[in-house]
Amino acid sequence: MDIKRVVVGIQALTFYSTKKLLLGNKAVITVLVALFVAAVMVYAGSQSDRPLEDGTNLMDTLILFFFMPVMAMIFGSSLIRDEIDDKSITHVATAPLDRAFSYLGYYLPLGIATAISMVAIITVGWVGFFGQHGIGPDELGIYLDFVALVVIGSFVYSSLFLAISVLFSKPVMFGLFYAFIWEGYIGSLPGAIQNASVKHYLRSLGSEWVKFGDISGWVQASSAWSSALVLLVVTIFFLILGIYLFREKELA
Amino acid sequence: MTSQGDGLMPIVQAQALSKWYGQVIGLNGFALRVMPGITGIVGPNGSGKSTFFKLILGLIKPNAGSISVLGEIPWKNPNLHSSIGFCPDYESLPSDSTGREYLTLIGKLQMMHGTALSNRIREVVRLVDMERALDRKTGGYSKGMKQRMKIAGALLHDPKLLILDEPLSGTDPLVRKDLIDLIKMINKDHGHDIIVSSHVLFEIERMTHNVALIYRGRAVASGDIAEIRNLMDRHPHNIIIEGEKATALAKALLDEDYVVSVALNDNKDSLTVQVSKPDDFFNGLPALIDKTQCSVSTMYSLDDNLEAVFRYLVGR
Q1: How far is it, in rounded angstroms, from Cα B160 to Cα B83?
Q2: 8 Å CB contact between B49 and B26
Q3: A15, A241, A248, B53: which has the highest count of C-beta atoms within 10 A?
């Protein structure tokens, strides 16, 4: 295997696709979500007399709980499928690069673009809420904790949704089902069933790190180490699944 | 079997090759040896030309039989792509990228970078006459420009073998002439072996005398075009021409001895020409267009006659 060729190929695809994701049509969705989050958090901030608690709860429920899987789904569930359908995948499929590495050339930009969008959204919301009450070390700590969580979440969900985009011919339908029904509903049910959602482990990590809000005292949280391990295994599992499917896929 | 370049190794060799998509047969017991040079693959729409090309590129895998390209099996063989340039018949250019961004990505995927890549991009866009449109979004290109940019992408890494799937499809006569000249020049001056497909035999004839005819997933004839053309010429060919001032062009065509009949269609900007010598027609048409100032927007052969010849060739 020519390692240099592999690295250059992945770099080229990562740069190209990141730019396409961040500056293409989906950038409008990021801006709209950021505006929505800003509006909600500015209003909530103006009404709050316990800003550290209320602000943390909002960042948890609105951004980590809801928009994290939704944005990953919007960016990821049709990334490869769109290129298969509009046939612009031809230049990747006819490049001298094993499809396993081409797949990584889609995964990395997807994770990066989702993470950048989520960090932008969380920054806007955080400034909108806490900016009204003054920003000190506690507020900055909350911000950094949630930035870390959405960056981790971006790479976990990207692995999952990218595999979906290779596995299904209508990946957006399945992506919607997963993001809203599975993550949104099943992940909120009481009892052990919520352990079957990515969100549970992200929030478990958050309960270890964040010092304010309901998430800090969350009784159902799994341990930080086991959560980190589960998230890593999920990411690797879906990466391997996606790579296998992509290598076997006929591009007719 | 194609005979050009006897004594040389075939660049593509297919034996008993079959590919089907569910109930639909793409290729069926297909056998062909393609020798170096320019080889034309001719067949009606849906005959299996694109399936053959996808098998050459390893985009799909055969259900039966075998195919080798430059001595290697293409399925799951990405290294082979270093030696092949592909211009597909569909729109594959990313519409939100400029020509330069597209070529830069292709080049980097082929391990080209820095000044060498910039110089090569400049070289190939000059070759396909796309220098002025290089920094425009490809979504705004005309059909002819898109074809040229796709050919530039296929040529960028200086591949040994160039696969051009219907490169003349949807282009106007003047662009067709330019593209045909370009394809011949790429082979003659740059030494690339080329496999080019079309559903119009007489377009292929202007590029090469070495053809293979495909019909319903089988190679029904291959070899020198002169023999095949004799069969074709027994069947008058109907060609549709659409554009402004079509009436003036119709009058001019009636004076040509290779024209059997000219009929204006319901839409006065469209005419059907029946010709006995298609090669004379295609050679003479650009001058007639120039003389009558007709603005031709579309031109195509009706497949019916080609189908008739293919049916004749397979004895149906």
Answers
A1: 5
A2: no
A3: B53
Please name the member of A11, A87, A252 whose beta carbon is closest to the beta carbon of B92.
A87
For the stretch A114-165, pLDDT in tens is: 999 999 999 999 999 999 988 899 999 999 999 999 999 999 999 999 999 9
Two tokens at A146?
Answer: 């949630």
Domains of chain B: 12-230 (3.40.50.300), 234-313 (3.30.70.100)
Residues of B in contact with A18 (CB under 8 A): none
| pLDDT score, position A240 | 97
What's the pTM?
Answer: 0.81
CA distances to A60, B166, B249 from A225, in Å:
20, 57, 80
* Nearest CB neighbour to A94, from listed B76, B81, B101: B81
- Per-residue pLDDT at B64: 94
Q: What is the dihedral of CA B216, B219, B224, B229, to 10 degrees?
A: -20
A96–B106 C-beta distance less than 8 A: no
> For the purposes of burial, counting CB atoms within 10 Å of the CB of B278, is it exposed (0-12), middle (13-18) or buried (19 or more)?
buried
Indicate whether B311 pLDDT > 70: no
CA distance B237 to chain A (A): 32
Question: Residue A41: CB partners within 8 Å, gap ≥ 6?
Answer: A55, A58, A62, A124, A125, A126, A128, A129
Amino acid at B226: A
Dihedrals φ, ψ of B182, to 5°? -65, -45
Report which secondary-structure segment, H or E, holds B187: helix B173-190
Contacts of A87 in chain B (CB under 8 A): 88, 90-92
pLDDT in tens, B229-266: 666 666 677 888 888 888 888 889 988 888 888 888 87
Flag whether residue B84 sits within 8 Å of chain A, measured between CB atoms. Answer: yes
Contact residues on chain B for A92, CB-CB shorter than 8 A? 109
At A103, list the tokens: 């797949």
- Inter-chain touch B78–A96, beta carbons under 8 Å: yes
Instruction: Determine contact: A249 vs chain B, CB below 8 A.
Output: no
